[in-house]
Amino acid sequence: MARLTSIQDLEIxxxxxxxxxxxxxxxxxxxxxxxxxxxxxxxxxxxxxREVLKxxxxxxxxxxxxxCPGFCEKGTLVVVYPQGIYYMGVQPDDVQEIVxxxxxxxxxxxxxxxxxxxxxxxAILEDDIPFYNHQMxxxxxxxxxxDPRNIYDYIALGGYAALARALSQMTSxxxxxxxxxxxxxxxxxxxxxxxxxxxxxAKASGDPKYVIVNCDEGDPGAFMDRALMEGNPHSVLxxxxxxxxAVGAHSGYIYVRMEYPLAVENAKFxxxxxxxxxxxxxxxxxxxxxxxxxxxxxxGAFVSGESTALMNALEGKVGEPRPKYVHTSECGVxxxxxxxxxxxxxxxxxxxxxxxxxxxxxxxxxxSKGTKIFSLVGKVNNTGLVExxxxxxxxxxxxxxxxxxxxEKKLKGVQTGGPSGGxxxxxxxxxxxxxxxxxxxxxxxxxxSIIVIDEDTCVVDLARYFVDFLCDESCGKCLPxxxxxxxxxxxLDGIVSGKGHExxxxxxxxxxxxxxxxxxxxxxRTAVNPVLSTIAHFPDExxxxxxxxxxxxxxxKALVSYFIEPEICIGCGLCQKNCPQGAIEGEEDxxxxxxxxxxxxxxxxxxxxxxxxxxxKKVSRGLSHSAERLNRGEKA
Length: 636
Prior knowledge:
Blueprint: H1 7-20, E1 26-31, H2 34-38, H3 41-54, E2 61-66, E3 78-81, E4 85-87, H4 95-104, E5 114-115, E6 122-123, H5 130-133, H6 151-156, H7 161-169, H8 172-182, H9 194-203, E7 210-215, H10 224-231, H11 233-247, E8 251-256, H12 261-277, E9 292-297, H13 307-314, E10 338-342, H14 343-355, H15 357-361, E11 371-378, E12 384-389, H16 394-401, E13 411-416, E14 423-425, H17 435-440, E15 449-454, H18 459-473, H19 479-496, H20 504-518, H21 522-526, H22 529-537, H23 539-546, E16 560-564, H24 574-578, E17 584-585, E18 593-594, H25 604-608, E19 616-620, H26 627-631
Parallel strand pairs: 1-2, 7-8, 7-10, 8-9, 11-15
Antiparallel strand pairs: 1-3, 3-4, 5-6, 11-12, 13-14, 13-15, 16-19, 17-18
């Protein structure tokens, strides 16, 4: 790679890349993100390479390993260009047919196209697929077109034009003013105005200054930052360089959690290629601005995503938070002014510089501008990454994009904001998704996870799960968080085990109030959200557990029993053969009976009972008629 020494060199390179690429060339783009890798993308890539080699088509067909385009539910995803034919659920055995029918003959392999479950219609192009056409994708749409290890792909699509504009046409203050006017708020969870943070760092005294990418994404069910860093690391890097120029920093870090090895690899590739082209290092694009970046791999602690804990970890210390009476913009890494934003925030910067603050602020709501990437997971038909304008309702996300709830189950609610977020009931599903509306319901935007729960999910047990997670992930530095979470976990364990007391909710609220007011960092202050939101929105479910000793969702193991309905049982013996405790009795070809004294309520009998029969039933132990009576065939 020849080093670029001016803005003109970059534009010349861009023109050369575009001119030397045949728009009619056949390209097979294969999602090679972590999600699709888990579904066998690596084998699909190898199969395409073997098939192309076998047919001697190396010059006619290019195989491109790309990042995640979002529809993780349907991986492995393969797009055939120049037509843009979108295939889903591709397996290695499908590769020969795709090459022979689609690439060589121009015919469709219809069974691999998306089929609309409502109409039965096939979708050929990405924009025809409902999951995509209800979104507004500026950050992740190009993932399927970019090889994250090829900087030329990014440059061909306009990459680093925003950096060139900032360095050649804008002062540092003008860049900050543009970010302030855009209304961009931090996408890492707090929602602090980005431009205000940048200005504070720029005005802070002391050198050197640092800029940092926070890719320590530890929320269960969240993978937005991972997808961006894996699929388009140069968009993040470009934003980081612009931020460094704006605040006067000459050194930066990309902090990536230990569990993201592919993101680490692709980030390192991006840095190496950017240095070779002169987009990092000394005198970037002949502007006189010097800047370089290092990748730092996190140790895996959830609390390290908190800004001061992350900076401690960068210094080689234990990743635990510091008191925030001094802002990190003034006293951060090594007690120097430090600017920290998460991956998605940095990726928005080139968009704002290229298209302008007015364009960005025209999207979204009054106080929450632009788009937001969410991971949509849980009890929903279409799972994956979605990018929507701020202000879209939860209902539209769940039903128009997510395709509704599987098995015609009833929606109970959604959990937003990760383990520190709240659970919002179905009656509030028309709530627009933005920072302030979610907070008003006792939840939060967080980094952007949306977990859909249906009628089979117990919200008390879900709150217990998140408290348990946070209890294990708390650094333990401050007493309110450390001991408060332990006490909450103990109380919730008792409630879901049928040992709850009527005063438990009062005690939970008192602990939550103390944690909110006295915890050192945001982990402790927001850890109470799952508990308080479920108490506020689902009081009847808590009452059922505490007073009636039953779980309405039949999800809490200690509060359910299994029985076999004698009128339905066909005597197949599958439940008896598979019971790990030997708790099921019955002669061959006769009705089986569960011995409740030996049953551990593992649920295996229900799983193996033939679906057309379903003689095994699950009931609440709190009902007036016991499972023993039902086992004897007595009517309730």
